[in-house]
Specification:
The protein contains 22 helices and nine strands. By secondary structure, it is of the alpha/beta class.
Length: 475
């Protein structure tokens, strides 16, 4: 077997990110990726400016010239931040991007460290804190968005695990439908509890789908037993509200729900917008696919410990319909500027696979799927304009919004087209199935880690430096 074939086989069979990265480096060495990384030239990068900035940052950090260093950092990050995360820079070599990008980010990290550790009369502690807080607000935060997709959504667990294992799991996590269940389960646990969960999939309660007897389907307004889904949510998330989950994990959870009636807006539920709403009811509402489950009334619990209705006149359904990926609302609520999307909606995955594949067959598939989507949106618009009955009009509106909303992020992670996943969409996974979903999610995430790491590296460095300065201030 050739070295290249052996490296491909090792890449496909990797059980850990370390094994995957070793195989990726071997493939880059064989296929020219390593030489490409060592060559600074790239049309996406202002290489001469980047070299000058690296030199200036190193010199000013070494001299502890903090005022000049702060000014250079501000101008340099603004100048290069978009360039160093250009998608093409991460599509040539498997193991990473140009070494000059890594050199630049390392220089920025060391410059930030110098601002924390060095002393300068013109930059006391208060000025340092103000400068870094301003940088944090300007840079924004990353978020992880988990789509709907029925049982295919257990793929999200693998994405979460891959990011968590590398210290890259964002503090803002948003979910819709099955994505809401995964997001809530993550955000209701601290790091130690989350690590324990991800290392012991047997502890995950897996029975959320149970078909009702035919005679009960009409009376309950759906094909599936909502009480069983609620039991699944309680066992995996607990009986807490958004504020309590935030206090436990420190993470900001967001769950999207769509209105059951016309002329009502979708909501992003969070500790900021609805701190007392119970996660159980939020997840139940976000997973209430019309026809499978009845619409849900949200519940809240305040300090007295009693549950009561929240917005009692309203009912809510699957968040995927009008807010699968509410990027604009997350930007306003949490200052999010980098969206990492784990996308498993069954009607979206074929578009993503077709669009990102290579060759003539993939191009034709992309064109055909994109055309079909555009035509479906137009047909639904025309039908909606001509229908007069409110009920049917609302159904058509749900369909149109489902078809025309965006389903990608700055980084989008998705599974390969897999008939096994589609066949099991409405099935409770076995323990072996769950492990398979998780491994698929991990393997789909590993090739994206270099981009995600660099997209968020400066934000994470600023947050770390702020925490250190806050400790100094408190001491």
């Amino acid at each position: 077997m050739s070295t290249r074939r052996a490296a491909h086989k090792a890449l496909d069979s990797a059980e850990t990110y370390g094994q995957w990265l070793e195989a990726a480096n071997a493939l880059d060495a064989e296929g020219g990726g390593q030489a490409w990384r060592q060559d600074d030239a790239a049309p996406e990068l202002a290489v001469d400016l980047m070299r000058n900035d690296i030199g200036a940052l190193r010199k000013q950090a070494g001299a502890a010239d903090l005022p000049a260093l702060a000014e250079t950092l501000h101008e340099s990050i603004y100048r290069h931040q978009t360039d160093i995360t250009a998608p093409h820079l991460y599509a040539v070599a498997k193991a990473g991007t140009k070494h000059i990008v890594e050199d630049y980010l390392q220089a920025v990290e060391r410059a930030l460290d110098a601002i924390v550790t060095a002393e300068h009369p013109a930059m006391p502690l208060a000025a340092k804190l103000a400068a870094l807080r301003g940088a944090r607000d300007n840079l924004g935060r990353p978020a992880l968005l988990l789509s709907g997709g029925a049982a295919m959504g257990f793929f999200h667990l693998g994405v979460v695990k891959a990011l968590f294992d590398q210290g890259l799991l964002p503090d803002v996590i948003c979910g819709a439908s099955i994505g809401a269940l995964i997001a809530a389960g993550v955000c209701a646990r601290d790091d130690a509890q989350l690590a324990a969960l991800l290392s012991d999939v047997d502890s995950i309660y897996r029975v959320g789908i149970r078909f009702l007897p035919p005679r009960q389907m009409w009376n309950r307004g759906g094909l599936l037993d909502q009480a069983q889904l609620r039991t699944c949510i309680i066992n995996n998330v607990g009986d807490v509200n958004f504020a309590q989950a935030k206090a436990v994990s420190g993470r900001s959870l967001a769950i999207t729900v769509s209105p059951a009636r016309a002329r009502q807006k979708p909501r992003v539920l969070s500790a900021k917008t609805s701190p007392d709403v119970l996660l159980t009811s939020a997840v139940l509402a976000s997973a209430a696919v019309p026809g499978l489950f009845a619409p849900v009334a949200l519940q809240q619990r305040r300090g007295d410990g009693n549950a009561r209705p929240y917005l009692p006149a309203e009912r809510w359904v699957d968040g995927t319909f009008q807010g699968d990926l509410p990027t604009q609302r997350l930007a306003r609520l949490f200052n999010v500027n980098a969206n990492i999307v784990s996308q498993v909606n069954p009607h979206v995955v074929p578009f993503l696979v077709g669009r990102h594949g290579r060759g003539a067959v993939s191009a034709v598939a992309d064109l055909a799927l994109s055309s079909a989507r555009a035509q479906a949106v137009q047909v639904l618009k025309v039908a909606q304009a001509r229908v007069r009955r409110d009920g049917l009009h609302h159904v058509l509106e749900h369909g149109r919004l489902l078809a025309e909303q965006g389903y990608k992020g700055d980084t989008t992670i998705y599974p390969p087209l897999n008939l096994w996943m589609y066949r099991n969409m409405l099935s409770n996974p076995s323990t072996d199935d769950l492990r398979r979903y998780i491994r698929m999610g991990e393997r789909a995430t590993w090739p994206k880690l270099a981009l995600i790491r660099n997209q968020t590296r400066i934000q994470r460095a600023v947050a770390n430096c702020l925490a250190r300065l806050d400790n100094k201030s408190a001491g």
